[in-house]
Amino acid sequence: MRVHQMWNGYPDLKEDLSVVLKLIESHIRVHNKTVETTIKELVHSGGKLLRPAYSLLCAQIGPDNDKDKAIAVAAALETLHMATLIHDDVIDEADTRHGISTIHSKYDNKFAIYSGDYLFCVCFTILSKHATSLAHLEFNSRSMEKILSGELEQLDSRYRSAVTVKDYLSRVSGKTAQLFAVSCYSGAIESQASRRHTMNAWNMGHHIGMAFQIMDDILDYQGDCNTLGKPVMADIKQGIYTLPLIYAMQANPGAFQPLLDKKSSLTDEDMVSLTELIKKYEGVEKALLLAQRYTDKAIKQLNKLPDGPYKEKLYQITAALLNRTV
Amino acid sequence: MRVHQMWNGYPDLKEDLSVVLKLIESHIRVHNKTVETTIKELVHSGGKLLRPAYSLLCAQIGPDNDKDKAIAVAAALETLHMATLIHDDVIDEADTRHGISTIHSKYDNKFAIYSGDYLFCVCFTILSKHATSLAHLEFNSRSMEKILSGELEQLDSRYRSAVTVKDYLSRVSGKTAQLFAVSCYSGAIESQASRRHTMNAWNMGHHIGMAFQIMDDILDYQGDCNTLGKPVMADIKQGIYTLPLIYAMQANPGAFQPLLDKKSSLTDEDMVSLTELIKKYEGVEKALLLAQRYTDKAIKQLNKLPDGPYKEKLYQITAALLNRTV
Fold it and tell me: Distances in Å between the alpha carbon of B43 and those of B17, B32, B72, B172?
C-alpha cells in the first residue's frame, strides 16, 4: 500500500495508515472487476490521509488503545472523505485531482455518482461492524448530515458577491472543519478519553480544519497548475468566492463587481486583473492572518490534552500542515 | 401528510405510513429554508410507499410488535429509496417523476447529488437511532452496498445488445428486488420472527421485487407519457435494455441490431419500428409470463408465514400490485 510520503518520519503511524487503506480495500467488492479496480485505484490515489491520521493519533488520548477499533474508525472516515471527493469532482467538473484523472472524467458522471454512493455505504458498513455503540454511530451519521447540509448551503451562495467572511467561515465550518473535528473526536472517544479531553480533541480538529481550508484556498491564489494539482482560480469561475477574494472585496467592492458579474465567462485576462486586485487589497495576507489565528487556537486545545508521545506528533504534523506550501 | 390513495382500503396501514413520512420529515434539517423545503417536497411527492408498507406488514410476523421501531425501520427504507431515486434521476436525466419536476431539473445536478447524499445520511441516522443492534445495521449497510454495486453493473452493460435474460435478472435482483427483500426482512427481524419466517419474508420480498420491476419495465412498452408518468421507451434510448426487448431480440437478433446500433440517436420512427418488432416477437407476453412466475413464487413464500390479519393484506396488496395497469 502506497502511503503519502509526508508520513515517512512517523513509521508507526505510516504502518497504521497502510492497514487503514488495506481495510478499506478489503470492503470494496463489486462483481464487475473493471469497476472494482477503478474504485480501488481511487483508494490508492495518494491522498494525504490526514483525517485518518488525526483520528489514529487522537485514539491515543485515552487509556483504551484498541488498535483494531481505531483503525476501523479511521478507515470509515477516509472512506467518507473519498465518497464526498468523488461527488465534489462531479460537481466541480474538476478534471484532475492529485494529478491523476478523476473518476468522472475517466468514465462518466453516472459511474462517479454511484461509486460515491457505494463508498458511503462502505463507510457505514465499516462503522457498524466496528464501532463501539449505536449512539456513537448516530453521532457519526448526524455529523455527516451536517457536512452534506454544508455542501447544500454552499451551492446556494454561488455567485453571490455579497458573500461575507461570516458566510465563508460558516461554510468551511460545516464542511472541512466538521470532518476534521469528527476525526479527532472519534479517535478520542474510542480511546475512552474523558469528556473534557474528547471535547478538546473536537475543538482542536475543528480549528485545524478551519486553518487547513483557509490555507488550501489561499494556495489557489498563489501557485500554478503544476504545484497545486488543481486548476488555479477554478473556484472563482464557479462562483465560489473564498477568503482572499472576500477580504479584498471588502476593501473596495466596486472594483471587483464588473469582473465578477461575468461569472463563468471570465477570461484569462480577467483572471489576471482579479489577481492583481486581490494583491492590491492584501486579500492573501489577511487570510493568512486568520489561518494563523485558527492554528493558534488548535495548539491551545492540543496543549490541554494529556501528555504522551502522540502529542509531540500532533504538534509537528499540525505545524507542518498549516505552514505548508504544497 | 398525503399518503398514496392505493392505501385507502387499509386505514391502519395508511395512518402508519403517514407517521413514517412525518418521521422522515422531522429529520430533514437544513439551515437554508429553501433547500429544506425542496427536500421536504420530495418526501411528499406522492410515491407509493411500497417498501415501508411491506416492512410495516412484515413487522407483524413475529411476536414483538414494537410500533416505534417498525416505523423507524420503514422510514429508513423509504429514505434510502428516495436517495437512490434522486441520484437515478440525475443519471437518467429524467425530467419528471410521478408527474412533478424532479429535483435535478428544477435546480441542477449539483443540488440533486448533495440532496441524495444528505438523505443517505438521514437514512443511517434514523437506523442508528432506532435499530435493534449494530449487527442489524451492518446487515443493512451491506444490503445497500449490494444495491449500489447493482447500479454500477448496470452502467457497464449499457448499449450491449448481447445482454441476456440472465444479465437482466441479475441486474434487477441486485437493485429493486434487493430493496424489497431488505424491507420485508427488516420488518420481520424487528418483530423477532423465527429464523425460518424471516427467511420466508426475505424470499417473498425478493420475488415481489423481481415481479414488480418486470411489470414496471413492461409498462414502458405499453402506455404513453400520461398513463405512465415516465417517458416511454426512455430506457432503450439510454441503452438500458429490459425484458420485453431482450426476449424479442432472442427470437431474431438480426432484425433489431440495425436499430439498436443507432443508440441515443434513435428517432421516433425508429421507436415505432422497435415497438412493432417487439410486438411481432411477443416480447411483452413472454415478460408477463415471467412476472407471473415470480408472483407465484412470492405467494408460495407468503403462504408459509404464520396466520394473522397482516397476511390477508399482504395477499391483497401483492395481487393488486403485480396485476397493476398503472
Answer: 12, 17, 15, 24
Answer whether B141 sits within 8 Å of A134, measured CB to CB.
no
Distance, CA of A89 to CA of A272 (rounded, Å): 25
Range of the domain at B181: 10-322
Q: Is the pLDDT of residue A15 over 70?
A: yes
The verdict on residue B224 lying in a domain is: yes
Q: Does B10 touch chain A (CB under 8 A)?
A: no
pLDDT-derived band at B262, boundaries 50, 70, 90: confident
pLDDT digits (tens, 9 = 90+) for A256-287: 989 888 877 888 888 888 888 998 999 999 99
B124: nearest Cα among B113, B142, B137: B137
We report the CATH number of the domain holding residue B223 as: 1.10.600.10
d(C-alpha A209, C-alpha A178), whole Å: 7
Within 8 A of B113 by CB-CB distance, chain A residues are 87, 90-91, 113
Helix (H) or strand (E) holding B239: none
The CA–CA distances, whole Å, from A137 to A158, B72, B131 equal 33, 16, 11
Position B291 pLDDT exceeds 90: yes
Domain count, chain A: 1
Q: Write down the pLDDT at residue B204.
A: 98
